[in-house]
Amino acid sequence: MKEKTYVEDINRSIYDFRNEDKDAYKLDGGLSEEIVRQISKEKNDVDWMLDLRLKSLKIFNETPFPQWGPSIDGLNMDKIVTYVRPKDNKMRANWEEVPTEIKDTFEKLGIPQAERESLAGVGAQYDSELVYHNVRKEVAEAGVIYTDLESATHGEYGDMIREHFMKLVPPTDHKFAALHGAVWSGGSFVYVPKGVKVEIPLQSYFRLNAPGAGQFEHTLIIVDEGADLHFIEGCSAPKYNVANLHAGCVELFVGKNATLRYSTIENWSKNMYNLNTKRALVEEGGTIQWISGSFGSHVSYLYPTSVLQGKGAKSEFTGVTFSGEGQDLDTGCKVIHNAENTTSYINTRSISKSGGGNTFRSSVNIKPQAKNSKSSVSCASLMLDDISRSDTIPAMDIRTKDADVGHEAKIGSISDDTVFYLMSRGLSEDDAKALIVSGFADNVSKELPLEYAVEMNNLIRLEMKGAIG
Amino acid sequence: MYINHLPAETWNWLKMNGSEVVGIPKLQNSIFTSDKNGDIDNTLDSLTRRNIDARDNGAMRIAAANKVNITGVGPDMDNLLFDNNITLNRYEINKGDSNVLKLKWTVKNQSAWASAIEIVVKKNCKAVVFEEFESESEVSAHLAIQTKIVLEEGASINLIQLQRMGSGVTFINDIGSMQDEKSTFDLKEVIIGASKTYLGSRSNLVGDNSEFNAEVAYLVENKDKLDMNFVEFQKGKKTNSNLDVKGILRDEAFKIFRGTIDFIRGCAGSKGSELEDVLLLDDTIVNQTIPLILCDEEDVEGDHGATIGQIDDEKLFYLKSRGIKEEDIYEMLAKARLHSVISKISDEEIRNKWESFISE
What we know:
By secondary structure, chain A is of the alpha/beta class. Chain A has helices at about 35-45, 45-60, 100-110, 110-120, 135-140, 150-155, 160-165, 175-185, 415-425, 430-440, 440-445, 450-460, and strands at about 25, 85, 120-125, 130-135, 145-150, 190, 200-205, 215, 220-225, 230-235, 245, 250-255, 260-265, 270-275, 275-280, 285-295, 300, 305-310, 315-325, 330-335, 345-350, 355-365, 375-385, 390-400, 405-410. Chain A is about 25% helix and about 35% strand.
């Protein structure tokens, strides 16, 4: 008798450890003007920032919750703690000086090792504050700025930050963008000067340790004309039985003929509401490449957006989403073609199992001025059992005749014909099925640096035994 | 009136989730001709009101699973007809496989008409049904037509809808099918004219091995608007749906195509496919496309493909090399899309008439 195939859940044990937060300083739960003012005081905000926070709070209170995605009924904003920091609140550039408990956390996640072996710089955020930021000497000497955003607002880049901060994702964008504007804390500022090519990636890692807390980091990256950068973002948290919230914001400015690759391996715990906003503005001849792996969270709303503002600008989005028991992940992307000869390419895979829900949601808007623009959307979904769900909701809005838009979507289970073909080439049935499932997510792993591809493959540790069905 | 609701909503700013229709005047029962050939009974009946929120897809799914014939335009269409005291015209095809029913509406200027048609095809029977909607070119009017199809086990129907309306006509065209085991619904749709056309089609494939196939061709020009919503609700095992939509947009035309394949848990062995091909002829057009696949079942195959834009360069080069002017090539290819559906009409008289329309 055949044994029914069992596809294992992602092994989360390496992420699911926690530290007591007895030594942490935290504000009361909920959201009020008083709390927003307290955060501003804690952060030693520049004047304009407090105004922005208060304006954002007003917008948050006036904006309804989204009605179109997965349920967020379990998220009680009155209980979410918007600011938590270690009592010893000092950011270091020397790893040895980071408090032991926090240092151990990042050691377990492999961050210092990655820095030594394959990164040009690292930022590590623990709850609401950055605890470590460092950049290689030769990269800094090339003029690359990689620092925490808050101190940068006080320094020589203060005006540049004011010019860009929450201009691409204004607080009016949606309810959680407004929330972010009100309570943001932590995150990184990167500036790559004209013509500078950063050969190896920078990485920021976000760890949320406190139960019932929110993390609201802001990442602002400006890649100037002709420059080149690969930025990696990682995130994880231990599992608690109370809701945690991540409402970060990423704003990317890609200059003329510049290239930015932004890779994310998202592995939040299954009590996390991941309501994150990411957007890139791409100037003439520039390229934004999004690589996105979504594995964690209880609920996700995540749609990196590319605004192709200059002639010949390009966007590529490559994503994989794995949804298991207790997860409802609504992911995808948006592209707005605002100029001539712009190109977008979207390629995604999603895998649903054990009652997990996946939604691929996208929009491609080609404006009247975007003559000779091209867009290609391809999404594929794999259902591994009959208790899971997978939906595909792609939208296209084309307003010029000089556009070339192609779209294809496919959904299904493992094909018997493909298994038969592989078996005819000498593979066992088990091996054939294992090969199909693991190969399905290959579009993302092949785009990552080797060590991150290995990490991702660990995340999707699939075990195949017997036959599905 | 809220109609053509997308079964799973997306971002509100896209304005694709559904359409509000306002300014519908008091409607009267339409004047239309009916030509029956075969064993077809015609009876009149009254309608019932539908207490389902037009935005509540969950309620629509439950109702459809319980064999309520939910339509593509949605529950507000049922209520529009009920509130205007429109009479239900029921046609029952009782036996045989050569039944033909021809219905024709010739819309008068300033008219505000509605019809509720129900066609019941009994077990193992077949029918071909033509519905023609015509008016003179300068006519201004409102027309609301609902066609509900009930297919018993093994029954099949070919429904051919042909629309050629004047520049001031608002037309709401609503279709719903409730299908038992091994039934087949083939729909052919040609859309030309009308300032605003709202077309909703929902096939409720409740019986095992039931099937829905549709071919749609449209030409939208001037400042006209075409608003479509197709839903294939696949609940039975081994159900099959195929939707092929092709069209041409020119001048300041607006078109939205919503197409949803909805695989319900338990529909093992089902397949669904949607294809859309849109030719864009002017820079002032608006083309919106939102094809959904909703899936609660593992053992299914669903796919969607869309091609939107101009004629590909190779095809254009070939035709130019044969001495054909570029503007003639576009005209020829536009007509070819309509021709591809009209050429499959079995009735020679109707086919010739519509061939001559597109040749004008």
